[in-house]
Amino acid sequence: MTLAVERSDSSCGATIRGVDLSGPLDPELVSQIRSIWLQHKVVAFADQQMDDDALERFTLAMGGFGEDPFFDPIAGSEHVAAILREADETSGLFAESWHSDWSFLPKPPAGTCLLAVDIPPVGGDTLFADQVAAFAVLPEERKEYLRSLTAIHSAQRGYAPSGLYGDADEGRSMAIRSDESANETFEHPLIITHPETGEEAIFASFSYTVGIKGMSDEEALAFVLDLQSWQTRDEIVYRHRWEPGMLLMWDNRSVIHRATGGYEGYRRELHRTTIAAAA
Ligand code: SIN
Q1: Looking at the DSSP assignment, which residues form a beta bridge with residue 274?
Q2: Three-state DSSP class for 81?
Q3: Cα separations (Å) of 199 from 131, 132, 139?
Q4: Average confidence score pLDDT of the chain
Q5: DSSP assignment, residue 232?
Q6: What's the pTM value of the predicted model, to 2 decimals?
Q7: Ligand 1 centroid vs 214 CA: distance in angstroms?
Q8: If you ran DSSP here, which 8-state letter would residue 97 be given?
Q9: Which atom of ligand 1 is found nearest the CA of 260?
Q10: Would the pLDDT of 1 be above 80?
Q11: Which site among 129, 134, 150, 243 is 20 to 30 Å from 13 CA-CA?
């Protein structure tokens, strides 16, 4: 079976219709999906009838479960977390700032899956910015400079007790648990080489990049903010519009992403798993 792929009009993002992911997955189908995912970086599967077991089966087939700190899973599952906002919730939007999932871990997840459970009739799009494209068009001299840098990642801005989702965060329906371990840091090259495609990508975001080796905190902050405006220019951003029943899978090694609002008064729930880094 050859899958029909509709490309988005951006440099990343594609939609696949007419495939059923609710049951056991044929290895040939898995291999086709993985190669479409590596090419387009973000792939949506429309009109699915998947439950949490199917989401787990799909995640296992794509590479196995990643580590998920700071979230409690939903009841009855070890690996599925709910991205949830109740209709009357007033806490700040979750994940509204650009990031690559859990980039502060020594082995950040290769990908993330998000399954639509309750989709509002308006708003709640997810934005993706193509980090291979962001790097590719830079002048060679700038590329060389960026390649020489090491980024310091940490979950502290979000998940430390003093962070956005920490002690002062009230009324949130998502099961986030902040703790002191969020202050730990881990270094990654600023420019990574994708282990499966060999492409170079910028691996940084304001959410999790808290320093650059050799720069003062002030210099690093200014550098990261300036770089992020380059990383998220309109021409390399794909706006994903959710449909009921949709499954989305993205590659954390080649895109950064963020949530958007615009659905005040409506409930939004998606179930999320992460795909482990390639061994
Ligand atoms: C996330 O960053 O995991 C959530 C994205 C979204 O809610 O659209």
Answers
A1: 112
A2: strand
A3: 10, 7, 16
A4: 97
A5: T
A6: 0.97
A7: 32
A8: S
A9: 8
A10: no
A11: 150
**CA-to-CA distance for 128 and 192, rounded, in angstroms?**
18
Q: Give the domain range for residue 143.
A: 4-275
Q: What is the DSSP letter of 266?
A: S
Return the ∠ at Cα 183 (arms to 182 and 185), rounded to 5°. Answer: 100
- Write out pLDDT tens, residues 248-261: 999 999 999 999 99
Q: What is the residue with the minimal CA distance to atom 6 of ligand 1?
A: 259
Residue 142 CA to ligand 1 centre (angstroms): 31
Share of the chain above pLDDT 90, in %: 98
| Rounded distance between C-alpha atoms, residue 228 and residue 211, angstroms | 13
Query: Per DSSP, what are the bridge partners of residue 268?
Result: 85
Dihedral of the alpha carbons of 252, 128, 180, 157, in degrees to the nearest 10: 140
CATH of the domain at 217: 3.60.130.10
d(CA 108, CA 204): 12
Does residue 22 surpass a pLDDT of 80? yes
Q: What is the spatial distance between Cα 186 and Cα 107, in angstroms, rounded to a whole number?
A: 10
Sheet containing 185-189: order of strands: 185-189, 150-154, 209-212
Number of compact structural domains in the chain: 1
116 has a pLDDT exceeding 90 = yes
**pLDDT tens figures, 263-278:** 999 999 999 999 999 8
To test the pocket of ligand 1, the residue of 126, 205, 237, 252 to mutate (highest count of ligand atoms within 8 Å of its CB) is 126
Q: What is the mean pLDDT of residues 230-258?
A: 98
